[in-house]
Amino acid sequence: MQFDMTLLATFVAVLSTPALAQTDIPFALDWKFEGPSAPYFQALDAGYFDAAGMTVTISEGAGSLDAIPKVATGAFPFGFADINSLMRFLDQNPGAPVTAVMMIYDKPPFAIVGRPSLGVTKPSDLEGKILGAPPPDGAWAQFPIFAAETGIDMDAITVEPVGFPTREPMLAEGKVASITGFSFTSTLNLKRLGVPADDISVILMADYGVDLYGNAIIVNTDFAKANPELVTAFISAVAMGWKDAIAAPDTAIQALMGRNPAADAALELERLQMSIDANVLTDYVIEHGLGSIDPDRMASAIEQTKLVYDFVNAPDAAIYFDSSYLPTDGSLMLQ
Question: How confident is the model at residue 308 (pLDDT cuts 50, 70, 90)?
Fold first, then answer.
């Protein structure tokens, strides 16, 4: 991938120039305006970004990989993306100016979602059946690790490439027996399509030996070097938005509905709560606060990735996650 360094240099110069006005900050999400994006809109409506001198504009994404090149090219200073996909991107594009600075999904939502009526309730059930998987999907990218950890034979699974819009409808119609996706996304979409809750099985990869992390706030490193205090302030505002959402998810959903009035508020509230309970509010986060990672676990995640991905360059956790911008004022703690 070729990076427009002239564009990047211009972008950084503009944003690093002192001015009385608020700094305009575009922020690229990984997916649509759904429940798990509510905390960012909550941070907007509560004035957390504004108080830090930022006018933040949030854009939808098209999958877990989508924000990475947007941030690497400098089109967006911040994004939200799968850190495992970021590892591979940086291996394939050495020196690209992008890294993760704040972990959000301490437990990744990578899942295989199936239907018991179609014979899928556990990993071994996938063999001999059709699995629907969107090629850009973050969960599909990690599926070989899940297969290696569970001992299932990938050659015994028929993989059907599907688009994101058709993924859940195909499972609802029985055209595939299971799909890869984020647990809270696919589960709630199936319920919206009329699939009974007792006919939805969620196989969370993290419950079957997959030690990976999930989505994180990523930043353009050239922008971050020029604006370190702003990066820390952005992280603090995001943390406050998530803490508000954990304490009062109803309020956060109202912030989301202001941007997506066609959404089903009750459904998105359930989706947000699923992400909080299963992916964000883990024992590690309760003890250590939002945003950080465990170096030993990260090392294990890299080793697992080596099982299914051949690194061209020696993997280095310091390239993938930079904790130096995390605030040290206690704002990341939940208590």
Answer: confident
Provide Rg for the chain, Cα atoms. Answer: 20
Residue 241 in contact with residue 48, Cβ under 8 Å? Answer: yes
Q: Report the C-alpha gap between 297 and 324 in whole angstroms.
A: 18
11 pLDDT above the threshold of 90: no
The whole model's pTM is what? 0.88
pLDDT, position 335: 78
What's the one-letter identity of residue 170?
Answer: M
Q: Which amino acid is at 294?
A: D
Specify the CATH architecture of the domain 5-107+213-325.
3-Layer(aba) Sandwich (3.40)
- Around Cβ 98, how many Cβ atoms within 10 Å? 29
Distance CA 290, CA 278 (A): 14
257/59 Cα distance (integer angstroms): 15
For range 167-194, the mean pLDDT: 96
Query: Which of 74-88, 134-148, 161-175 has the weakest average pLDDT?
Result: 134-148
Smallest CA-to-CA distance from 80 within 42, 111, 38, 37 is with: 37
* The Cα angle at residue 178 between residues 174 and 180, in degrees rounded to 5: 135
Share of the chain above pLDDT 90, in %: 89
pLDDT at 1 over 70: no
Cα–Cα nearest to 34, from 192, 244, 227, 218: 192
User: What residue ranges of the chain are covered by domains with CATH 3.40.190.10?
Assistant: 5-107+213-325, 110-208
Query: How many other β-carbons are positioned within 10 Å of the β-carbon of residue 46?
Result: 17
Which of 3.30.70.1350, 3.40.190.10, 3.20.20.120, 3.40.630.30 would CATH assign to domain 110-208?
3.40.190.10
CA-based nearest residue to 63, from 168, 171, 141: 141
Q: How far apart are CA 186 and CA 291, in angstroms?
A: 25
Stretch (H or E) spanning 130: strand 130-133
DSSP-based three-state secondary structure for 217:
strand
